[in-house]
# Entry
Amino acid sequence: MRLALRELRRSRRRFVPTTGALALLVVLLLMLGGLLDGLYIGSTGALRSQDDELVTFDRSARESTLRSRIEPDTRAAIEAVPGVRGTSGFGIALVGADVPRTDELADAAVMGYEGRVGGVPAPPAPGRAWADRSLEARGVRVGDVLRVGPTRIPLRVIGWVDDTNYLQQGGLWVEPGTWRTVLAESRPGAAVGDDVFQNVWVDVAPGADPARVAAAIDAATGTTRTITRAEAVLALPGIREQNATFTQIIGVTFLVAGLVVALFFALLTLERTPMLGVLKALGASSRQLVGALMTQTVAVTVIAFVTGGVIALGLDRLIPPEVPLVVTPDRAGFVAVGVFVAAVIGGAVSLRRIIRIDPASAIGTGT
Amino acid sequence: MPALVLQNVRKTYPSGDSEIVALDRANLEVPDDQILALVGPSGSGKTTLLSIAGGLLSATEGHVVVGGHHITEYSAKQLTAFRRAEVGFVFQTVNLVPFLTARENVMVAAELAGGAPEKAARARADQLLEELGLAHRAENLPAQLSGGERQRVAIGRALMNEPKLILVDEPTSALDTTLGNQVMALIVGEVKARRTAAIIVTHDTRMTHYADRTVEITDGILAA
# Structure
């Protein structure tokens, strides 16, 4: 191992191109992952923050909150299903919001709720809203009166909540009456009556099987489709496609990282074959030489990850706030593990060649 | 106990339906303080013999005993440990590890062996470099050394683990006569000082007078 580290230290220039290439791939992976996470978080927070396990849509809405309507009698039928402990009404209106001190409209999602939303306090008084902190970047301050929708309905921001956006629109959490007013003013054709919601979130009783409860709800109402929170998140427009696209790009980038390491160490091993033959002749075991290769692979990966991470963090500060880039510790950990695995597999490509090096090659044979 | 005993050692390589005989029924005994010069033309089998004696190649037939070790039956792993502890090599092309200093190159076998405390190994390496006139070059990399200095480091590396048998492959082939004589004198001096056995392979008959005994090999057959 010490031999391997000495070579890294003293033949630094030999390792710089590969470490640099790997660091750039780490930057790319962190950026891609950060964009994926930013898009995902910014699109799904309103649903992920719900406390309840199940959500019911009108069947004809095809799992779209904006198209769905749940009438009071349907809600009563849901609440009567065994395994249902309670329900919470929920609805969304997508609007533009005039922000004081700015000329531009901020995209907002006004969400009417009855409670049971993680991280969001109890519904405020009419005309008031808890605002998602992402709106701060659009110039919103606590105490501001935002004017939303075409008729500029006033909403006073009374505090911040985190990670509650819907389809990249800043969350404004209001009591149901305010939401109905905003919806009716902004999309008159979609207006709903008193006690009508777009969704009903279902609190499943402890010990009950959510899948059975969901099936029982849909059987009891005959007009609904009940799915889990996770399924509802994936049913949001574009989320599944977005995840699949980014995942494929990230997968290919990991593959390229593995190939870079594989190619570099294959060439290095080829170039070092005479020296490795000498070391074997002097008593180095294949295990020691393989260990040295793996040590160098890990060291190159660690240096590349740290370098790439620093570059990515620097870029993160330069990127405008409207770009949905969120580099989380989980994502950094995923990239670190992914690059490490790709590099180790890449480095392992040279193992066979190292094992097959004949110590007799150190002095040649047949003379 | 002899440093090396070869009994009816044969080494063949398959070649289509036939075989090529690189070493044919070789019998040789080298006492533990003897320097033996092995001479012969290219392709005569002298490097094959050296490789078998050093545990780099396995004999096809016969018995090989080095310092009491019957290496004929050794596994690859056992041969690796054997080479590390019992044999010192000086290669034709020197082959120092380019990113290690002169001292570290001398210590490399000890480092591969693992167990030896670094302080003791370092002291021994410094002592060897002192004897070889390289104390002032201990921190230099091979690229900063002359050809003769590199050859001396290689000799130090071979002596580091106090081997029972030192195998030297064409030590003067890349050197002019003057430097060749200096290197041979150095090798012989160091080997004699340690009362160690050595086999020096050479095709340069001008160097054979440094050896206690000269054996010729032709077409894989040792001269009687």
In short: Chain A has a mean pLDDT of 92. The interface with chain B takes residues 2-3, 6-7, 10-11, 274-275, 278-285, 288, 359-360, 362-367 of chain A (CB under 8 Å). Chain A has ten helices and nine strands. Residues 59 and 224 of chain A are 4 Å apart (CA to CA).
